[in-house]
Specification:
The complex is a heterodimer.
Chain A (H helix, E strand, L loop, with lengths): L2 E5 L2 E4 L5 E8 L5 E7 L6 E7 L5 E2 L8 E7 L2 E6 L8 E8 L8 E3 L3 E5 L1
Parallel strand pairs in A: 2-11
Antiparallel strand pairs in A: 1-3, 3-8, 4-5, 4-9, 5-6, 7-8, 9-10, 9-11
Chain B lengths: L4 E3 L2 E5 L4 E6 L7 E6 L6 E6 L5 E4 L2 E5 L5 E6 L8 E9 L3 E4 L3 E6 L1
Parallel strand pairs in B: 2-11
Antiparallel strand pairs in B: 1-3, 3-8, 4-5, 4-9, 6-7, 7-8, 9-10, 9-11
Chain lengths: 117, 110
C-alpha cells in the first residue's frame, strides 16, 4: 500500500532554532499533502495543506511565517518551524492521499516529536 | 473544520471482550475512515467505507457506514493486548482534507 515517510522522528533542540521536517510519499506522487499537529491525548489538528508548485493553505490561527511549508516536488513536502520556542513542542504528522482514484484515504507518516528546550 | 463526535472517549476492558465505538456527524459524509494510532506513531488506516450501509471487516475489526451517512461504528471482537491505542474516525472535509473525531483511547487488561 501507499507509504508516507517522515523524517526526523524526534528532534530536541534549543529555543530559537529552526527545525525542518520532511514528508515523502514513497512510490507514488502527491500533489497535495497535509500537516497536522497533535498535543498529548488530543486529536489531530490540521495546520495546513501543502500544494505542489504553489503556496500552502493555512488553517485559521496558524502562523504562516512561523510554520513555513514548501512542496517543491511531487513526492516531498517540508515543514520548517522557524525560531522554535517551547510552546512549539508537539507531535507533527504529515499525510498524503493515496494514489489512484479520487477520495483515496490519507496515509500518514510516523510523526515527528519536536521538543524545544 | 467539521468536528466529528466520537464516543466513548476511553475504554478499559478485559482481554477477550468485544469493543464498540462510534462516530456521528451533523453533516452527511460520502466516506468514513477508521484509523488506529499507537503511542509516538502516526495513524494507520484500518478500514475505509464508501457506501451507506456498507459493512466491512478487517480481521477482528468490523466497521459500518450508517444508512443516514451521518454515523459509523467500529467493533473489535475478542480484544487482545496489542489492540491498545487510540482509534480515530475521520471523514472528508472540503475536498481532500480530513476531519477527525476526538479519538477513543482503548486500554486492555491482560
Amino acid at each position: 500500500g501507499a507509504v508516507v515517510s517522515q523524517h526526523p522522528s524526534w528532534v530536541i533542540c534549543k529555543s530559537g532554532t529552526s527545525v525542518k521536517i520532511e514528508c515523502r510519499s514513497l512510490d507514488f506522487q502527491a500533489t497535495t499533502m497535509f500537516w497536522y499537529r497533535q498535543f498529548p491525548k488530543q486529536s489531530l489538528m490540521l495546520m495546513a495543506t501543502s500544494n505542489e508548485g504553489s503556496k500552502a493553505t493555512y488553517e485559521q490561527g496558524v502562523e504562516k511565517d512561523k510554520f513555513l511549508i514548501n512542496h517543491a516536488s511531487l513526492t516531498l513536502s517540508t515543514l520548517t518551524v522557524t525560531s522554535a520556542h517551547p510552546e512549539d513542542s508537539s507531535f507533527y504528522i504529515c499525510s498524503a492521499p493515496g494514489p489512484g482514484r479520487s477520495n483515496q484515504p490519507q496515509h500518514f507518516g510516523d510523526g515527528t516529536r519536536l521538543s524545544i528546550l | 473544520g467539521q468536528q466529528l463526535n466520537q464516543s466513548p472517549q476511553s475504554m478499559f476492558i478485559q482481554e477477550g471482550e468485544d469493543v464498540s465505538m462510534n462516530c456521528t456527524s451533523s453533516s452527511i459524509f460520502n466516506t468514513w475512515l477508521w484509523y488506529k494510532q499507537d503511542p509516538g506513531e502516526g495513524p494507520v488506516l484500518l478500514i475505509a467505507l464508501y457506501k451507506a450501509g456498507e459493512l466491512t471487516s478487517n480481521g477482528r475489526l468490523t466497521a459500518q457506514f450508517g444508512i443516514t451517512r451521518k454515523d459509523s461504528f467500529l467493533n473489535i471482537s475478542a480484544s487482545i493486548p496489542s489492540d491498545v491505542g487510540i482509534y480515530f474516525c475521520a471523514g472528508p472535509w472540503a475536498g481532500n482534507m480530513l476531519t477527525f473525531g476526538g479519538g477513543t483511547r482503548l486500554m486492555v487488561k491482560p
